[in-house]
Amino acid sequence: MAEQAEFRFMGVTVPNLTIGYGLFLILWGTAFFLESQAKTAFIPAGIGLPILLSGVLTRMKPAQRKIWMHVAVLFGLLAFLGGFRVFKGLGTEAGMFALPKAAASQLMLIVTGGLYTATCVRSFIWARKNRPAEDAAE
Predict the structure, then answer these.
(1) Quick check: is 2 in a domain?
(2) Nearest to 28 by CA among 8, 51, 59
(3) What is the pTM of this model?
C-alpha cells in the first residue's frame, strides 16, 4: 500500500475541507440572517470568511501553507469555543429554547468547530511525522 502524500479526512484534503467549511459557515450565517434579520446571525459567516480565505491562500501560496492553515485552525477553535454560549441559556426558565435558531447555530459551531479543529490538529501531527528528512533536521 502506497503512503499518501497528504493528510486526508474522509478522502478530502485539509485545504479543500477548509474551503468547504468556510463556505458552509458563510452560507449558514447568511441564511440565518435573511430569516431573522438579527445581526448576530452573521457570526458564523464572520468566522467562516477568514477560514475560507485561509483555505484559498493555502491553495494559491503552497509555500505559506503552514501559516494559512494555522490561521484557519485558530478561527476553527474560535467557532468551537463560541458555540459554548449555547449552555448559557440552560440555567434560565425558558432555557436554550427561547431562541431556538440561535441555539441551533451555537450547537452547530460546537460540533463543526470541534470536528474541524480536531481534524486540523491531526493533520499537523501527520505532517510533522511525515515531513522530509532534510526538514526534520532543522
Answers:
(1) no
(2) 51
(3) 0.84
